[in-house]
Amino acid sequence: MKSSTAFRPAFLSVLIFTCRTTTQNLPPGVISPLVQTCGPTSKIVCINHYASVMPYHFYRQASDNASYEDTFPKTIVGNDSSFSLLPGADFLVFDQQRGLEMLGTAPSYEFMFAVNDAVHEAPVYSPATNKLYLSQLRGNTSPPGFLPQLVVNLNVDPPYLGELLSDPPIYAPNGGTIHNGLIYWGVSGGNDSIGGIEERPGIATLDPTTNKTVTLLNNHFGHYFNTVDDLFVADNGDVWFTDPQYSWFNALTDTAPQLNSASYRFRPSTGVVTMIDDTMVQPNGIAISPRMENCSATENRKVYISDSGAVTGTILQSLGSHGTGFNSTGKRTVYAFDLTSDGNHIINRRPVWFAQDFIPDGLKVARNGWIVAGTGTGVDVVDPDDGALIVRIQTNFTVQNFAWTGTDYMDFWLMGNSGIARVKWNLQGQELK
Asked: Which of 39, 59, 89 is the last residue of a domain?
């Protein structure tokens, strides 16, 4: 039997109802306070009963794409002062029992590096070099036209942030993982003359010990892929990836989308590319659950794909790239699929998480099977069985992706617009080598 996702506060407030307006502000069912500090540090707060009944009047304003970013802590709750604890917290705990156990006795959030406000993606940890590799999708270029990647050197204390220009260079990796010592990058950029070299969206590998890259895939029967946003490598070497249209929206390609948004499986040994899903507006993050003990490589495994269609734009070549807008009523959902026994397809699609802030971007699965998603200015940790939000990390920048590092895969690095941060907690990542 699962433990309850709600928790009981340390005390229950006695609610006294009178004939005054208080009865309208505190409807039957309100538990006060809605929020309270909890755990080993003051930077952790617990949300009582998911704040499922708020006192009136409350209001959460939707984002307007220009001057206001919609977040849960910005909800106006005029008759519960405890809600003001949310903005200053590093960790929001929605399930006290599991959440505090996951955070451990000394959780911490540390802003490590200020970077430019471009998208920062494709984080991959290499155990062989003990370095974290990631991309920046805009920056100083050397040689002209290439966007160098970034590297966090974890062999020194404090860690050092530097640049990497591979040989040959890779234009705008947007998703990444490691398999058999090689970094697999989803290449999102496409141009006919990037530093004098033509590159198109696809899949490439980087050997972190030699800095050499090899292109594995760059077309679909002659058509350019759109973005190749995120990917994972299955045990048999197949590369599963999503292909939304964000490179066009973000001016990272010179050609409007030629294919509909879809997700694919690529077999490097034969070159075959198979579509696995075309039901999403903008498929974004993709991840696979850990292999279960005493199970085959495919038995009982789940594949997760996020649809970030709430952020989209126009694809007409004649209009050029006009960026994207955010619509809070659009798709911003993580879906689960069952992996077929042959490992070739996914079935039984169902939603498991609707992002409560912005859209689900980077997507991974912890070693214990919990879903971890970058959503706006933070990261959500979700139980895949019942779709319950357990903990949210709050950041001071928009998170695009993240990766676990270290010999025990316990250090958690987050990156996005304007920042790179590190979290120390007890949620362990899958061991990838």
From this structure: 89
Bridge partners (DSSP) of residue 417 are 398
Query: Are residue 376 and residue 243 in the same domain, yes or no?
Result: yes
pLDDT single digits (tens) 274-319: 999 999 999 999 999 998 877 787 778 999 999 999 998 888 765 6
| 129/219 same-domain check | yes
Please write the tens of the pLDDT for every residue from 164-208. 999 999 999 999 999 999 999 999 999 988 878 899 999 999 999
Say if residue 208 is in the same domain as residue 281.
yes
Rounded to two decimals, what is the model's pTM? Answer: 0.91
Position 12 in a domain: no
